[in-house]
Write a structure and sequence with these properties.
Radius of gyration: 26 Å
Strand order of the largest sheet: 1-3-2
Low-confidence stretches: 5-12
Helix content: 40-55%
Distance between the termini: 90 Å
Number of strands: 3
């Protein structure tokens, strides 16, 4: 049986987040600093650093000289960034293809067609 805090987080405050992230919000502290926020994002979304969180547009409070953000806002921004990121196909380029890169690459066929050195 979920507690009242978990029920509250699961109902409608964070309805734009998936269920697994709403559960994280319910179980975490209400406010996190950049290091804690980056750790939560690393565990549940994608790799990021605390210096990256400094550039995110998040609501902040300064408590005892430390800047903290609502945990829900950090996860909401991470989820938004993950959904807006374009998908790209990545892989290694074939190395046997002639003409890729800065200069023309030599293949085994090029070596066999080359004239023998003069004697």
């Amino acid at each position: 049986m979920p507690t009242k805090a978990i029920e509250h987080a699961l109902v409608d405050d964070y309805s734009d987040l998936p269920l697994r992230l709403r559960e994280v919000v319910a179980r975490s502290a209400e406010y996190v600093d950049n290091r804690q926020g980056a750790k939560i994002v690393n565990e549940h979304c994608f790799p990021t650093g605390d210096r990256s969180l400094e550039t995110w547009w998040l609501p902040t409070k300064t408590i005892n000289g430390r800047v903290v953000h609502p945990t829900a806002a950090v996860l909401r921004e991470a989820w938004r960034r993950m959904n807006e990121a374009p998908e790209r196909m990545r892989g290694r380029r074939p190395t046997a293809v002639v003409g890729i890169g800065r200069g023309r690459r030599r293949t085994q066929a090029d070596e066999s067609q080359r004239a023998p050195p003069p004697t």
